[in-house]
Amino acid sequence: MAKKEEDKIKKPTSSYEAKDIMVLEGLDPVRKRPGMYIGGTGVDGLHHLVWEVTDNAIDEAMAGHAKNIIVELLPDNKVSVFDDGRGIPVDIHPHTKVSALETVLTTLHAGGKFGGEGYKVSGGLHGVGVSVVNALSEWLRVEVYRAGGLYVQEYKRGKPTAKVKKIGTSKITGTKVIFLADKDIFETIEYSVKRIMERLRQQAYLTKGIRVNFIDRREDPISAYGFYFEGGVMSFASHLARSKKPLQEDIFYVHKQYEKVEVEVAFTYVDDIETKELSFANNINNPDGGTHVTGFRSAITRTLNNYARSENYLKEKDENLTAEDTREGLITVISVKLPEPQFEGQTKARLGSPEARPAVESVVNEGLKDFLEKHPQEGRRIIEKVLLAARARKAAKAAKDTVMRKGALEGLTLPGKLADCISKKAEESELFIVEGDSAGGSAKSGRDRKTQAILPLRGKILNVEKSRLDKMLANAEIRSLVIAIGAAIGADFDVTKARYHKIIIMTDADVDGAHIRTLLMTLFYRYFHPMVEAGYVYAAQPPLFKLQQGKEIRYAYSPEEQAKLSKEMEKKGTVTVSRYKGLGEMNPDQLWETTMNPENRILKQIEIGDAEAADHLFDILMGDEVEPRKQFIQTHAAKVQNLDV
Ligand code: 28F
Predict the structure, then answer these.
(1) Ligand 1 atom showing the smallest separation from residue 177 Cα
(2) Which residues of 309-339 are buried (b: 16+ CB within 10 A; e: fewer)?
(3) Distance 475 CA to ligand 1 centre (A)
């Protein structure tokens, strides 16, 4: 049912003239203070080199001149990027007597973006120019296929090693850049396939119809991936909703030019309480939203309220639906393209351009009104969902007020099950969430009382997937956890109030333990998100094996370690190996020694990615959709080893 109103989209015409190049300054400042140009010289800064070059290829595709982009990771960490666009101009500049190609590669901010009518739509303000990549590479080669010829030039740390040379003829046109990041500058020059894949997939979603291929040639056999999305942001939204039950037949989609702003929005409501909202300006991700998101939210809220009233879902006396109510279960991708976007915030993660707000608001208002008129049955489902959210909001507020009134959530009365630590300094305090009362008992007596608190959780905590905040607050286990952490929950959560700066999930190393860990990670991801962001959440890694040889007892945390250790200990006589089925099999000292003692325990810090994966896994395992769960179990059942039956 997507609205296919593909208005004629005005493409930026970057008419190339040698005069367009604004020669600003040499490259020395870049090598002196690389952080000024790419943010840092760690792994993020290293990947910025790849983003800069690939963004230039995407720009050429966005301008309608390239259809295919090939990114390759070569052995010894060289990166190669190719696009089949027009090829960087190679003609000699009348004043500087230097080839345009050399100027673009060796001069800061050279390129249509800062002058002329053309503008870069991807990379945008972040696009510092390929000359920065050149300056920070110990070696770089550019090949230009243009006007029937193949032109080449090579550089060392940004300095040409020879003039631009025509080394052959060519039937195709395009640009290829191959570079080797300078290990004198970067802490590491090891690339992450995952990061590059995620970024290329995202760029392909945002630039519908272009083909992006990624080939990792560092190992044998090579691995190759291709991204190609006819549906653009529509495919992106459906990818984000892949494990959820949709409330609409198709993704809502609108793509229109509004004055200077090109607006493309896709969204779908799903049967869930979680919101996903991705926004981009000139293909740059804006995690902190901005004027385009504000425009979108006011359009949704206003149009749904008007519709709910005109269709009598809301009576005269009923209060309006809030923006919050309309966001539950809404999965959205907003992409705007505009000349000279203004970004705000220290990480430039928010779009400030005022013109983007009315553009998105008007385009979405009109599109959604039209959609609701044409699809009344889906309109009904959406309104019913939003009304339900409004009722839950009021109930949650009432429940929270009740609970708050009782003073429980203020942490005045800590839950009985919590064995708190003596220290009141959050930064040194640790809260162990332990599965089961027996392990809880051992943890309580084995721990370091000064800094370690224990909260035993009985069995499976509430299946947080379907419940709402109010129902969750009613659950004793969850309430104990909220009170113990002492920083409220959900939208009111304030991480600076957290009473512990380490929350350690300690569950058995079996399937049940993994299940509980997934539940808890989902809970933290959804209702204590800043704790995960701050890196406060960990998973304890209990030993899998105990090895005994005479009096000597050792522990192994993986089958490989167990094999190695057995071989070593066998020299002194027979070794008995026992597999730990659960924490409860360890006595307090063993539990302390192997899993709680900061000296030699192993903790896995939960990153957003892990929690997000748990959240997605959780949808599959615990959500309503049977199909994704069946698929998941079939796919993974083969891989599950030592399943305790
Ligand atoms: C592997 C990375 O960098 N592709 C690029 C072009 C095409 C033109 C261009 C680039 C205009 C004035 C500065 C060609 N013909 N892929 C890439 N493809 N830059 S970068 O122009 C450069 C600027 O000089 C191009 C006509 N107009 C623009």
Answers:
(1) 1
(2) eeeebbeeeeeebeeebbbbbbbbbbbbbbb
(3) 60
Which listed CATH number (3.30.420.40, 3.40.1280.10, 3.40.50.670, 3.30.360.10) goes with 418-542+591-635? 3.40.50.670
Which atom from ligand 1 is nearest to the alpha carbon of 69? 1
Type of residue at 37: Y
Taking only the tens place, the pLDDT of each residue in 550-578 is 889 899 988 999 999 999 999 889 999 99
* 109 in contact with ligand 1, CB cutoff 6 A: no
Name the superfamily (CATH) of residues 28-227: Histidine kinase-like ATPase, C-terminal domain (3.30.565.10)
Give per-residue pLDDT as tens, 474-521: 677 777 888 888 887 777 788 998 999 999 999 987 777 887 888 788
DSSP conformation class of 99 = B
Q: Which atom of ligand 1 is nearest to the CA of 82?
A: 1
Q: What band does 414 get if pLDDT is binned at 50, 70 and 90?
A: low
CB of 100 sitting under 6 A from ligand 1: yes
Tell me the pLDDT of the chain averaged across its residues: 86
Which amino acids are annotated catalytic? Answer: 435, 508, 510, 512
For the Cβ of 86 lying below 6 angstroms from any atom of ligand 1, the answer is yes
**More confident of the two residues 424 and 167:** 167
Ligand 1 close to Cβ of residue 83 (< 6 A): yes
Q: What is the rounded CA–CA span in Å between residue 603 and residue 541?
A: 6
The three-state secondary structure class of 6 is strand
